[in-house]
Design goal:
The chain has 11 helices and 52 strands. It is an alpha+beta fold. The two termini are about 45 Å apart. Keywords: Glycosidase, Hydrolase, Signal.
Length: about 900
């Protein structure tokens, strides 16, 4: 996020290793976050099998404040300790997440309930306690984990095995050998987790995204694994891929692993593996406590040279095939350890273009990065289904990338991104401790020598975890500020040692680091409202270069969501008082109100007359603005002069119930911003240019499109036609190329001050392939470029869209039916403007609703927020989980700018 104005490589205890080169198995974070048990209920012990190579996550914990526990750490961490009155927690849970699941506090997403949770309760350490059982002690046993926020003392069976001074940092990876402490039967792990302070600790913070959680996310947010194995362990297993570009005809695979002899005697390990149908093996002698790097390459295993490899592509560019590597170590005829990795074959390059902008290429093809900023749940609760639903939304919107500024999600997130073809841009976060050494505008404290070690260990652990995921496009080692020479060296040394396969970018802003040089990115805003024409200027946040985070700020949810998240009194203030502090916007004084947005809404569309009127105007404003943002970057991507190379909408989603920075809200409902983005990112798309009035066809498909016809028609709000032009024989190359079939005249006789533009693109067979409707003004929005701040550019004059209020209400007939199969339902809706006059129905919105009239969510529409002229009809489809109907018959709720709301059956 943009800067805010002032407002040892190895640590060891008795058995502690912070392995800079260590990595977890692909199952390290397997499974969904389990819900906590009812208040006070005993957390069952985790059964740990004896199989070599097994890695079993602890199934859950009991948690309690140290202020309420007077017993010694030795007692708390001993089997049989009675944790009376403790709170149950899932395997990955912050303290507050556990208390919320246990019903201690009211819904934190509603009203100001979050503000009522006492912060003092989380200013002391909290205990996490869990039991596990083993049947034998013949195997070596270790604890394997990361995700401690912020630090923890670790105890096993009454013995401290690691100190908080060593187990510190949310991203550092730890493997603790507890073989000598494990006994047959019940064993106990206890962690005394220290409070988190993002300005003091290299962990996670929220800055101005949302109202921060009172516990600051202290807790365990990734699995704690119990590993079992023999004398030789396999660690840091990975595959280095080398794809021939641009032919894609061959790929070389190099398999690497660390074979570590954990015993006090020399052994010979038989290392065997298979990948892509090729098998290989090698005998590896190891001295006592010796570690060797074992490498298999095409030079000694010809089958690792692949012909016609299955290449991984982002969604919309090709398929997402994945390969599997299986590896095992045998000692004296028995299995000692195993490793499994899933990986993809792809090539990523990101040179700077002639204008100094970062230009990504994947598998030899140019890539315009179109993405959004990702937010996890505010309380870092992992829910696989919820995450998968949002990734499906990203694909539905035509986005290809999600940026993770800090808050680096568990393995399953990247597994799902691989599967759905969603690229990711992970990196460290801004403005807190991560940038304390280099960002004078941030709040983070300066680094100590120990912080440099933690940062390097964090980079090594995340590099080892993320490098095999084809969805990972880059790593940003800085956000608002680039690292200095010392910090950069630590990061780059760790990345190089991990065989990091994709570009490393020094910052998300226009900054440089000593070795990497210029970032090739910009972070010029805006973060608050600007008019849609803003995006077409090749300056500030406009469509040139790579803008790593930007949007027009507020994103007012649907009425359904607003009524779930705010009280009637709060909703009344929302539309009546633009200067009021909005708790659901941001803790920042800069973004605390909606005044800039509300003033623009009133000037352009007219002052709101009710909550409903405010929300309906907001949906038009958000649709036109988000559409323009993505359309401008899409149009300018093929320019020879300062082309657009990437844009990240700030943000894709919010971690809580929010009034800004979101294309999709907390409840997975879709407002005008969502459908504006979906329209802009159509595969084959006709669009209007706010800067020069040109009509442009953009082809995001790989293959050229030929023989098309583009038609542009201008109307008064009452539907009176004032201009019409058709251009046949339109052709456009693929991969983001565009063509301009026509330009609208600067003036049209008789056209009202507020008017409508309908664009229709048909293919050679006459089939409609793209339709786009704009509401425009003869009076332009006037930008005060000289008054630009870090977060927006003010306007000195507004477009006049108040004429839309004069549009007559028109009837829209709707018929709907639903088919269900395999747990999925598809509702088909046909809309028809049955009005007798000439007035179109503007931004007609359709919702699938359940028995109580609320929306069925999540849902993916073929299209929505459509505009129909009299006699026109359109058929839309909505796909969703049948279970989300909760046993009721589906209905379809239809509404629009000038269409009365009504609900029709859809069973």
């Amino acid at each position: 996020m943009f800067p805010r104005p002032p407002h040892r490589r190895r640590y060891t205890t008795t058995a502690l290793v912070v392995g800079l080169l260590s990595t977890l198995t692909s199952g390290a974070w397997a499974g969904n976050r389990q819900p906590a048990a009812p208040h006070g209920q005993h957390v069952e012990a985790t059964r740990v099998p004896s199989e070599a190579g097994s890695a079993t996550p602890l199934a859950g914990f009991a948690v309690q404040s140290t202020a309420k526990v007077s017993d010694s750490p030795e007692a708390v961490s001993s089997p049989g300790y009675r944790a009376a009155g403790w709170h149950p927690a899932g395997p990955r849970s912050t303290v507050l997440a556990a208390l919320l699941a246990d019903g201690v506090y009211a819904d934190p997403f509603h009203s100001s309930n979050l503000q009522k949770i006492p912060r003092a309760d989380f200013q002391v350490p909290w205990w996490y306690r869990s039991d596990f059982t083993v049947e034998d002690t013949g195997r070596r046993t270790s604890l394997d984990f990361s995700g401690v926020v912020s630090a923890a003392d670790v105890y096993v069976n009454g013995h401290r095995v690691a100190a908080a001074a060593d187990v510190t940092g949310a991203y550092t990876h730890h493997e603790l050998d507890i073989t000598s402490l494990v006994r047959s039967g019940t064993n106990t792990v206890a962690l005394r987790v220290r409070p988190n302070d993002p300005d003091q600790d290299l962990t996670m913070g929220w800055l101005d995204w949302l109202q921060p959680p009172p516990d600051r996310n202290m807790g365990l947010v990734r699995d704690v694994l119990v590993r079992r194995g023999g004398p030789v362990a396999l660690r840091d297993t990975h595959v280095v891929t080398d794809l021939a570009v641009p032919s894609l005809a061959t790929a070389d695979l190099t398999v690497k692993t660390l074979a570590r002899n954990d015993s006090g005697a020399p052994v010979t390990a038989e290392i065997s593996g298979s990948v892509g149908g090729t098998h290989f093996t090698r005998s590896v002698p190891l001295a006592a406590h010796e570690t060797k790097t074992v490498t298999f390459s095409p030079a000694d295993v010809p089958g690792l040279h692949l012909t016609s490899p299955r290449v991984w592509w982002p969604a919309g560019m090709g398929g997402q095939p994945l390969y599997d590597l299986d590896l095992s170590a045998e000692v004296a005829g028995g299995t000692s350890d195993t490793a499994h990795r899933t990986f993809g074959i792809r090539d990523v390059r990101a040179p700077l273009n002639s204008a100094g902008a970062r230009q990504y290429r994947i598998n030899g093809r140019g890539l315009l990065v179109k993405g959004g900023g990702w937010s996890p749940d505010e309380f870092l609760r992992w829910d696989r289904t919820y995450v998968e639903d949002r990734l499906k939304y990203a694909v539905d919107l035509g986005l290809n990338t999600l940026r993770l500024e800090g808050h680096l999600e568990p393995d399953e997130f990247f597994d799902l991104a691989d599967r759905y073809g969603v690229l990711t841009l992970p990196g460290w976060e801004c403005c807190d401790k991560w940038e304390g050494q280099v960002n004078p505008s941030g709040s983070g404290k300066k680094w100590t020598d120990a912080d440099h070690l933690v940062a390097k260990a964090s980079m090594a652990a995340e590099a080892a975890r993320l490098r095999g995921h084809p969805s990972v496009l880059s790593f940003l080692i800085g956000s608002d500020s680039a690292p200095d020479a010392a910090i950069e060296k630590g990061y780059l040394d760790a990345l190089e040692a991990a065989d990091w396969p994709v570009p490393v970018v020094p910052a998300a802003s226009d900054a440089s680091s000593p070795r990497l040089g210029a970032s090739g990115m910009k972070m010029t805003g805006p973060y608050d409202w600007v008019p849609p024409g803003y995006w077409y200027a090749k300056r500030e946040g406009g469509a040139t270069g790579f803008n790593s985070e930007t949007s027009a700020g507020p994103s007012i949810p649907t009425l359904d969501t607003l009524r779930r998240m705010m009280t009637p009194a709060e909703l009344d203030t929302l539309w009546k008082d633009p200067g009021a502090r909005q708790y659901h916007r941001s803790p920042s004084t800069t973004f605390g109100t909606l005044k800039i947005y509300d003033d623009a809404l009133a000037h352009r569309y007219g002052p709101p007359t009710s909550l409903t009127d405010y929300v309906r105007k907001a949906q038009l404003a958000q649709y036109e603005n988000v559409r323009a943002q993505f359309e401008a970057y899409g149009r300018n991507a093929a320019d020879t002069d300062r082309p657009a190379t990437g844009v990240i909408h700030w943000m894709f989603n919010s971690g809580w119930t929010s009034l800004h920075w979101q294309l999709v809200d907390r409840y997975l409902d879709q407002n005008g911003a969502y459908f504006g983005a979906k329209k802009a990112n159509e595969p084959l798309h006709v669009q209007y240019s706010y800067d020069d009035r040109s009509v442009v066809v953009v082809n995001n498909l790989h293959t050229p499109a030929q023989g098309m016809t583009a038609r542009a028609t201008l109307f008064d709000p009452d539907g009176t036609q004032r201009y019409d032009r058709t251009v046949a024989g339109v052709s456009v190359e693929g991969d983001g190329a565009h063509t301009k079939p026509l330009t609208l005249p600067s003036s049209v006789s008789g056209l009202k001050p507020t008017y409508l533009l309908r664009l229709v693109l048909t293919d050679a067979a006459g089939r409609e392939v793209s339709r786009n409707v704009y509401w425009l003004s003869g009076k332009a929005d006037t930008l005060d470029w000289n008054g630009t701040t870090w977060y927006y550019t003010p306007t000195t004059g507004s477009a006049d869209l108040t004429g839309l209020a004069s549009m007559a209400r028109v009837p829209v007939a709707a018929t709907a039916s639903t088919e269900s199969s395999g747990g999925t339902s598809t509702t088909t809706v046909t809309l028809r403007n049955t009005g007798a006059g000439t007035t179109p129905s503007l931004l007609t919105d359709v919702r699938v609703v359940g028995g109580q009239g609320g929306p069925v969510l999540p849902v993916r529409w073929s299209d929505n927020d459509v505009s129909l002229w009299p006699g026109e009809s359109v058929t839309l489809t909505a796909t969703y989980r049948t279970a989300d109907l909760r046993g009721s018959a589906p209905g379809v709720r239809v509404s629009g700018w000038n269409t009365a709301e009504r609900t029709v059956p859809a069973a």
